[in-house]
fumarylacetoacetase
Amino acid sequence: MPPFDVPEGDPFGTHNLPYGVFSLPGSVDRRVGVRLGDHVLDAGAAAAALGSPYVSLLARPSLGPLLAAGRTAWSDVRRALTAWLTVPAHQEAIAELFHPLSSVTLHLPFEVADYVDFYASENHARNVGQIFRPDAPDPLTPNWKHLPIGYHGRSGTVVVSGTDVVRPSGQRKAPADAAPVFGPSVRLDIEAEVGFVVGVPSERGRPVALGDFREHVFGLCLLNDWSARDIQAWEYVPLGPFLGKSFATSLSAWITPLDALEEAQVTPPQRTHPLLPYLDDTGPEAEPGGYDLRISVAVNGHVVSEPPFSTMYWTAAQQLAHMTVNGASLRTGDLYGSGTVSGPSERERGSLLELTWNGRDPLELPDGKRAFLENGDVVTLSAWAPGPDGVRVGLGEVTGRVVAG
Amino acid sequence: MPPFDVPEGDPFGTHNLPYGVFSLPGSVDRRVGVRLGDHVLDAGAAAAALGSPYVSLLARPSLGPLLAAGRTAWSDVRRALTAWLTVPAHQEAIAELFHPLSSVTLHLPFEVADYVDFYASENHARNVGQIFRPDAPDPLTPNWKHLPIGYHGRSGTVVVSGTDVVRPSGQRKAPADAAPVFGPSVRLDIEAEVGFVVGVPSERGRPVALGDFREHVFGLCLLNDWSARDIQAWEYVPLGPFLGKSFATSLSAWITPLDALEEAQVTPPQRTHPLLPYLDDTGPEAEPGGYDLRISVAVNGHVVSEPPFSTMYWTAAQQLAHMTVNGASLRTGDLYGSGTVSGPSERERGSLLELTWNGRDPLELPDGKRAFLENGDVVTLSAWAPGPDGVRVGLGEVTGRVVAG
């Protein structure tokens, strides 16, 4: 039964078990899948074959029902899957329900409700501040160390990894120009981010406490927040990014459950400013909050950066607490991005804006220089996290090709 | 048959026919309703009783299927409804399918996909600029006359008229304070807006032209974009409003079809700056684009302002063209707000921020002074538009009471 014989150390072994949604060739039926090595298990069919009660959560066209089921169900289903994949009698019953990854089509694994994007990397915020406000006394805005800055994005244009990204057109205006001009963006960029997927909803008027993060958030994925810097620069004062971002946001096809990332938890960077109680994660009983995820950014297969998620100043738990502290409710399928992940060193920056210092220092790629993205360029983010016994937990990848409009 | 005997000049006569979703006492079933006078017709039951093919669009728990059906279906269904309500044989068949408005519960009439809010009133933008940037050479930002500024809001907290609004808590910081403080907002405000409801989706990568507005937008409603000015002021640089807005946005229960507003179309204000072609509505063949909607803002039943929608600089058609010009796709149920509607005179301002000049000149209400909203205050927006033969088209109302958190 080859699917079960995942090589030792495979980042998609039974310690991982990320969820996705796939369809088979010639079929429009979408099915919940669990990745094992380079195969996908038809999880709903497996549950049915084994007479599992989880068929109601898994034999569905979306992860929605599983996401809504809550932490206890998430752990129970994960335990059941582990048994199915490791106990010989169960293995036998489901052996025919695997498909090679290369043979299936992967879909957006859940319907995105609200999409929020944060700005939580201090290195990124400092780089952006230095690039755009070189004369400011502090590259960080006065609020940056007091709250995780965020804004709502367009959930209707969140697309699954592998989807082509059409170069957006829009208005841009250089400071010296008398009037804006219209045309395809000439400063198309990426932002390497981690996305967090909300499962359990909350009531309007009831903030979610810092310590309840794991009760609401099911897991995480990789996210590329494509950005047209020229469109963004002209439009964003005073109400923030809009068309510079809303044309596409790419998501990895696999959602890694938080349960697979126990060993990846780390303490976030030292807090340099006192935090208001609802954000304060410095107490002795606070959970670590950070995650040690090693991201890799490749353009046309050439790695240009390795942003370390462990350096993020604001954690996903703080972001959730902040996002709801005004009484805003959560829905199943809410997605929030960490913001661009940038480490302290040059090769750890999560955007071309920073990597090329706004185009001043183009990257030298095997196929030529790049200040920003050209049509035909393929951007791929991938990542892994430390798992049990030194094994890596693979976070899959999010990839997309830029095509002309 | 009293329901049919709507008094002459009733703003909810057969020239109007707005759509909503209601349920009957003791039932959780939601039904599409059409308002006639102070009754609601169970439109799905009527279609079934008359053997109409539109039962598939109307016997549904949401307006979604009707919204998705497109302009031809919208007009056909409207013609059919008019016949049902005016031809005696049809009247007889549906006479028992009316319910007094006072006996039903009204619900959010469709699932909000993406929610975008614009900033399209020049009077409003100038007032805000003068209040917050008194020393700036121009109260408008440099981009204001070149594009309709907008941003994404939280669709998960859009609520139907009548829903209580919990006063949000959050961070605020006065310029003189050393650090932010946390607590209930002390500057809770309203924004009187008109909301536009997208029916027909568009493809990613394919902008919607100015002239295709009516092919995609089904109708409009009233919208109160509740705003916590103190939270907003501290958080909004550099990525725009977030928690100052995301706690609640109230929508009127009735969606008025554009077909009911033919007589209300007006030419928008003179364009003072040349527009890029995708936004240019000044050509001889351009549709008027504006709507003459007379809005009324009441606090605890006392009218404090009457903002005229005809003064909006940017039209809903321009907003749709702009929102999609970067290739962003539309979904059925997308909702976009016009931005606060403010006319040129003091009694035409659509927010307390402007009406009280940021609290400097409190309103004198029968129950006391108001700089911003107090707990228990009920805010009601209502509106009408000119209809055929001098009859008004009622836009219903959106109301909400502020309650303590």
Remarks:
- Chain A has ten helices and 26 strands.
- The radius of gyration of chain A is 21 Å.
